[in-house]
Amino acid sequence: MTQSHTEPRINEVATRARAGLLNIISAITIALLLLRPETDPVIIVGPFVLFDMLAAAVTGLTPFSPTGILGTALTMNIRPVWKPTRPKRFAWLLGAGLAATCLAMRLFGASPVAMAAVVAVCFVLTWSEATLGFCVGCYMHKLIWGCQDCEVPYVRGIASGPPINAETSAINLESRA
């Protein structure tokens, strides 16, 4: 929680660093599945990512999520950007679902190419979060349950809007009524 918010908040900068770490893990897993399938990376990476996602969803980035701890440590000297936790936790539960799907595919003997396809979805989602700041799970949360406190910068245009002053604020409020 922060002084200006009653709900718990999470550091978006550390979250994006964590997504970058998970993106690297997914890229390596895809490469191993396609180039060296005999290494069987999913049997190791699957439980790790599943634990990591569930730990983050339950306790936040720290103290139990390994990539959350590392992402937080990597961003200690960067000014935090505080965001609501509920959309992130929803996104992490979706990530846990993808990890469980990939692990189940491995346990039921799916082909490495099929598992690589699921991991590729994880790759795209973590890349989007880490590089663009667009969290698909958070966006889905906003669409399903709404989030008045969520600032969704990727919905706005690339250029910043005109400066807000008292006159334009009054006009905007009147047009909404």
Q: Mean of the pLDDT scores?
A: 87
What structural category arises from helix and sheet content? mainly alpha
The profile of the biggest β sheet is: 2 strands, antiparallel
The best one-word shape is globular
Spans of at least 5 consecutive residues whose pLDDT stays below 50 are 154-163, 168-177
Task: Give the percentage of residues in beta strands.
Answer: under 5%
- The strands making up the biggest β-sheet line up spatially as 1-2
SSE series: EHHHEHHHH
The strand count comes to: 2
Distance separating the two termini: 32 Å
Q: Number of helical segments?
A: 7
Radius of gyration: 19 Å
Q: Percentage of helical residues?
A: 55-70%
InterPro entries: DUF4395
Domain DUF4395: 10-144
Organism: Mycobacterium scrofulaceum
Pfam families: DUF4395
What does this structure look like?
This is DUF4395 domain-containing protein. Residues 10-144 form the DUF4395 domain. The chain crosses the membrane at residues 20-36, 42-69, 90-108, 114-139. The protein is mostly helical and 177 residues long. It has one domain. It is 66% helix and 3% strand. It is built from 7 helices and 2 strands. The protein has helices spanning 12-35, 42-59, 66-74, 85-107, 112-132, 136-145, 166-176, and strands spanning 9-11, 82-84. Strands 1-2 form a two-stranded antiparallel ribbon. The longest helix is centred in the first third of the chain and has 24 residues, at 12-35. Residues 154-163 and 168-177 have low confidence and may be disordered.
